[in-house]
C-alpha cells in the first residue's frame, strides 16, 4: 500500500471503545468493528435484553452472535509487522501543504523555489521521481516563500542588483534594472560568505570584551558586598561593646549613688537613735523632778535635787546638713554633661563616617564607569565615523554618573569641609573649658572621699565617671585619632586581653577570697549584680539577645526562624515550634525515646533524615531496670528547657580565641542551657565551608551523642540523665554561681617548652566555706569551688572555674 501512495490513518484500525489497535476484531450487524473483549464487556455492563452499537446506537434484540472479521484481522496483523504510517497534520506554527485538499492539510516538509509551492511528504514524492522535477531547487519548508517572488513579475528572485542593493528577478534585469551592476544570487552569496568569518570574529571579540567587563563588574560587586558585610559585622560588634560598656558605666553610677545614699542614711539613722535616747532620758528626768516637787521631806528633796539637776545629756544639739537634692542633682547634671559629650563625639565621628562612605562610593562608581566607557574601535571602524558613547549606551546596568564632578557634589563637599572645621573649633573650645574647670577644681574645690571615688562638691562630677568616659572614647578610637595615641591604646588593649606567664602560674590557695562579683569589659555576668550584693538573690540580668557571630545565637531569639510549607515557603518563629513540642512533652509523666526523637525532628526538619537516635534507643533498651526512671526524666528535661526565656534574658558572648575573657552564670542557668542542648534547640552552627560564620566550630546540640552506639556513650548518657534528675529535683537542685574563664598568652611570651621546668598540668580542686564581706557592708556566706586546669599545646591556655554558692 505504501508503494501505491495510499496513506492509512491509524484511527481506521482503532477500537472506539479502548481506542487501541483492534485485537481479535469482530463485526456487529450494523457493520462497525470492535475488539471482542471490548464489545462483550460493553454489553455485559447493562444486560437488559437490548444491545446497542457504541458508535451509531443501533439496537439489537436478541444479543448478536459475534464472529471474527478475518480480513480485518489480517490487515491489522500486516500493519503491525510493516508499521503504520501516521498522518501528520499542520499545526498553528507549521507550514501547510499547498497540494492537500480539505479542511485539514498535512504538514509541509519541503518547498520548491521553482514551483513556489510547499509540499507534504506524499506530494513532494514526484520531485524525487520525475526527471524534469528533479532539477527543481528544494529547500526546507518555509512560510516566507512568497518573499522570494518578485511582486512585479511573479518570478523567483534569483539576481542581486548591486546598484540598487536589492533582489530582483530575470525580467527585472531587462526592465527597470537594465544596465545595472547585477550578479546571480550564488555569486553574491560566495562573496558575502568570505566576509562572514571576519564579521563573526569581530562579534566574538566583542562578546569576549563584554564578558571580561561583566566579570570585572561582578567581582567588584562581590567585593563590595563582602566589604559591606564585614563592615556591618564590625559595626555591630563595636556598637554591642559600646552598649555593654555604657551599661557598665550606668551600673557604676547607680552603685555610686546608692553608696552615698546608704552612707548618709546610716549617719542620719545614728543621730536619730541618739536623739531618741536623749529624749527618753530627759522625759524620765522630767517625771522624777515632777515627783520630787510634791515631796514634803526637805532632806530628801535637797539630796535628790542635787543629783537630778545635773545635766544627763549634752547641751549641744547634734546637727546634720542634709542636701540630697543638691548632691543627686549634681550627679544627674554630670551624667547629662557626659551624655552631651558623647553625643557631640558621635556627631563628629558620624560626619567623618558619612563623608568617607561617599568618597568610597564615588571611587567605585568611577572605576565601574571607566570600565563601561572603553571605546570599541572595531565598531567605530565599521560605522566609519567617530562615536561619542554614553556609559549606559550598551550595558543596561543603570546610569553611572560621577557625582564628584557635579556642582551639587562640590557644594556638598564644601559644606562638609566647613562642618569639619566648625567641629574642630568646637573641640578646641571644649578642651579650653575643660582645662579651666580643672584649674578651678584644684584651687577651690573641696573633695570628699566616698567609696574610692573622689567627688568634687563644685559640680558633683566623679573622676570615676570621667575616667569611664575617657576609656569609652578610647575604646572606640575617638581620642586616639586626635592626639596620636592609637599605639598606646592598642598596647593597653593587648595587655588587657592577654595573660602573662607569671599570672598563669599562680594557683590560688585555699584561704584566698574571691574578688567581689562585678562587671568588666572582659567579664560578663548573667545575673543582677546589684540584687546579688544587696539582697543575696540570684536574679537573671535583664537585657536583650544579639543575633551575631560573637554571641551564642539563642533558640528563643526573635531572629531564630524556621521555614514552613513545601509548596509556598514561609518563615515562622522557631521558638514557637520548639516551645510547643517541649511543653507537650513536659505534660507527660513518662516519655519514650521515640517521643523525644519526634519532638526534636519536628523543629529540625532540615536534619530529619540525617540525625539518628540509635545510641539513645540502645541505651534505654540495655537498661531495662532503669528504663522507667529514664523515661520519667525526659519530661523534666523538656520542662527545664522550655523555661529558657526566664533564665537567660541577655546575650551570652562567646569566649573567643586570642582573648582573656570570663563569664559568670548560675547553676540553674547552666542546667537550662544544657537541657536545650539535650533537646537540640540551638541553631546548628558547625559548617565545613571555610567562609562560613561557624567553620569547624563545635555545635552546642547533643545530636552526635544520640547517633552511633558505643560502650563509652553508655556512661556519658547515664551521667547526663542522672545530672538532669538532680537539677530538676527541688530537693537536690544545686545553687550558686559558676565562672568560666579563658586565658590567652601571646606568641612572643611563649616559652621554649623543651627547656621549661615548671609544671602546668596540675589540677587543684578545693571546696571551703567562709564569710565574705563586701565593701557595701553586706555580709554573705558563700561556698567557693576553685578548679584550675592547666594545659599547653602550641598556645598556652588556662581554664579557671569559680563556683559561688549562696547559703
From TrEMBL:
Write the record's keywords in alphabetical order, separated by commas. Answer: Coiled coil, Metal-binding, Zinc, Zinc-finger
Q: Where is the composition biased (Basic and acidic residues)?
A: 380-392, 412-473
Source organism's superkingdom?
Answer: Eukaryota
Matches recorded under SUPFAM superfamilies? B-box zinc-binding domain, RING/U-box
Keyword GTP-binding listed? The answer is: no
Q: Which GO molecular function entries does the Swiss-Prot or TrEMBL record give?
A: zinc ion binding
Annotated RING-type domain residues: 15-57
Where do Basic residues bias regions lie? Answer: 763-790
* CDD domains registered for this protein in UniProt: Bbox1_TRIM8-like (cd19802), Bbox2_TRIM16-like (cd19769)
Pfam families linked: PARG_cat_N, TRIM_CC, zf-B_box, zf-C3HC4_4
Q: Where is the B box-type domain?
A: 145-185
- Disordered as annotated region, ranges: 356-473, 763-807
* Chain coiled-coil ranges: 258-295
Polar residues bias spans: 356-368
PANTHER family according to UniProt: B-BOX DOMAIN CONTAINING, E3 UBIQUITIN_ISG15 LIGASE TRIM25-RELATED
Protein known as: Poly(ADP-ribose) glycohydrolase-like
Q: What organism is the protein native to?
A: Salmo trutta
The record lists the lineage as: Eukaryota, Metazoa, Chordata, Craniata, Vertebrata
Q: Which gene is this protein's source?
A: LOC115159906
